[in-house]
């Protein structure tokens, strides 16, 4: 559906449509029209005009998310368009803003906020080429170092100082460049201010070094994922040596906590880590998926003084005591997003799960229950639990052994949830060969009757359509939801896994040779 444009916005589009004319006309444009022209240029992908607008930006702040978001003149939100052409033009324009030579009093820009854009799977821009978070980190670091090596740099540093708020994404491949830019940021006119930091495929020593360079006192979100070998003792050292006063969201890599090898000293260590997290007054989002936490939830979460709004404990082998603690804790009444995937909920703790849902239902917006062994006999329980979740926007339940009939029953119920917008549902059990076991291994995941599945999926979407719920998107992403960060760096991560496998084989071969 087309979004209405004001006469002002249509005029702005007409102006920027002619790149040469727009670039010549900028000197005569009123300062308060720059945001309007920027959004029009971004929509039409006029890279050269975007560059010149940023190079001559006359205002105190440049907030990319607000500039591209819903405005009175054009309500469509463009902040999910991470267009390569537009963002590259924007960042090079920022560099040239520093190098431009007008009088110092004309340079009013103090803050650039690049954090408000969202990386999504489907790009609506014409070029179809994206600049993800990793690439934005790379380019900004490169431009900062270019400025430091520019002949005009001493003069620029005295005239211009701009704080650039950014979500950094660092891997082994861009580590050296980013570390150099952060190390020298005090001398650079563009000062990188890291608001969120993601580390993947990075040696632990390098992670500890670069996280200190980011100025952790500003950090609101910290993601340490996949190939960063962080364990509980390293986490304690991190929290002891670095203070994170504003940290709101923390994601830890798989197996950071491993209850299978817990000793008395490990128990004490876990308690200390819990207390350290409790000292983070702003912490409201925690992801500890794929850590074995059996019987340890209370010890980890009870020191927290701020209620959690988002909790991911998927595949953490939680027992009845863990779920009981969670259902009765003060966190339950504040949970807006909850992931309990990988737990056999119907068999292990159905009543406690229902209690947890009832406590979180007034605020719950996102619920993920993948591979939880919900079967046809549990559909009524699911509907009963979800019926009070009137604010639920997203429900994911891939990997559960539910028949087509059960799914139709659920979809009829979904029509009654007023805020629901996204559903990820499993391939019906009756589309797989008889005797398939759950959870289904990766090798068997795609071995189902695709024609039968398409037929059922059409029926499910028809249920939504007949209830006038075209606003609900229903899909079956077999290998999990889209992850922009993983997608952007999958080549590097794949190469790392192959290298690790090769090293393991070489060690194994060496050991065999020694034995023989």
TrEMBL record:
Its gene is: Lrrc14b
Protein family (similarity comment) = Belongs to the PRAME family. LRRC14 subfamily.
Q: What is the protein's given name?
A: Leucine-rich repeat-containing protein 14B
Keyword Nuclease listed? The answer is no
Q: Keyword annotations for this protein? A: Leucine-rich repeat, Repeat
Signal sequence residues? none
Read off the lineage from the record: Eukaryota, Metazoa, Chordata, Craniata, Vertebrata
> Which positions are tagged coiled coil?
none
Task: State the GO CC annotations.
Answer: cytoplasm
- Organism annotation: Urocolius indicus
